[in-house]
Design brief:
This protein is α+β, with helices and mostly antiparallel strands. It contains 3 helices and 3 strands; from the N terminus they run αββαβα.
């Protein structure tokens, strides 16, 4: 009896990750971190290991410690993932131009 290995393609996995990221909100701005433009990139390798490159609205952000941990914990809840690493960068610095049209509309900027 052969054991069939279940595989999930990285694009589908990436979409699942984005759905999870859209449930995490910056506590000072009523928009999720994905639409806010805080997620710069999501890398998924063939081993189902994920690296998320993200930023904060400022280096002095009050949630600088807790927000990356929340991102890591929530993304780790996806069963198919083996490992999740969150890296914070301030290059390039976050600006309002990184926000999606949806976020700008939500905040009354359009």
């Amino acid at each position: 009896m052969s054991k069939e290995i279940e595989t999930i393609d990285t694009q589908e996995l990436g979409e699942k990750i984005v759905r999870v990221l859209k449930t995490i909100y910056d506590p000072e701005i009523p928009v999720d971190i994905y639409e806010l433009g805080l997620i710069y990139d999501v890398f998924v390798n063939d081993e189902n290991e994920v690296k998320i490159l993200m930023t904060l609205t400022s280096p002095n952000c009050p949630v600088a410690e807790s927000l990356p941990m929340e991102v890591e914990e929530k993304v780790k809840s996806i069963d198919e993932l083996k490992d999740v690493e969150v890296e914070i960068t301030f290059d390039p610095p976050w600006t309002q131009e990184l926000m999606s049209e949806e976020a700008k509309l939500e905040l009354g900027m359009l």
